[in-house]
Specification:
mainly alpha, TorD-like, 13 helices
Length: about 290
Amino acid sequence: MTMDARNAQFDTARADFYQCLARAFLPPMEAAHARAILGGDLSSDLADLDEELGYGLAREIAQLQSELDAIGDPQTLLVLYSQLFLAPPVPARINAGMYLDGAMNGGSVMAMEADYRACGVERDQAFHDLPDHVSMQLEFVALLYSAQAQRFSGEAAAEPLPVDPGHFLHRFALQWLGSFCADMARAAATRELPANPYLPLAQLLHEAALRDALAPEQDPKAERKRNAIEQARAKYAARGISAEDMDVIKRKLQERGLATDHLSVPVDERDGAMGLAKKSLPTARR
């Protein structure tokens, strides 16, 4: 088997793995969906994919099935899902933006949506939730791995999608999964739950993401520029700015057509020169 064929096989398995998890974190509204989870299909599929991928998640998958066995029926699973993620005050957030931004529809959610749009992905009309829902993120990761597999197998054009699945996991999943797992563990310890299969499910997702996440490569030029700026700041902070330094600054500004009149005014007098005056903060009312 060629290297490209092996990569295609591996990425296909990763796509299937994250797709399984995406469906497992959806609300178990349909009885058939819940019965498939409770009946062992989810654990069996994850175990097969874990063996193929070499994640080493046998303990978490066994714990998942043990917790599912304690649930028993679809209605109990739906009630548990509601207790954990839907009925306020929820002990864990199924929308990652609350962990990333501390609010709904924050900057991280917009960044996720930008990645979706860049890859031509839109929310299904049947999906009535925000784009930072755990399931939507994981389905997107599955799509990215599937697209990679098709490129390696020659089924798709060589041009890759503009978002790398490992980079997406690094930018988003790794930033909220630790807190998500901690909240799930706290709920299991403090709430009267019949069982909590979503805790080992979150833990095995976290472990898989740790293995698959990739930090984007740093631009060496940008890194050198940042280092030079930090060194210059430290240098001038230590000795102050001399007349020669001011001449250089003035020349650089003039070369760019920028005003330099303000440089002749001492820093501590500039507020006054601009007609500004310092004021005291008002005292609190008693």
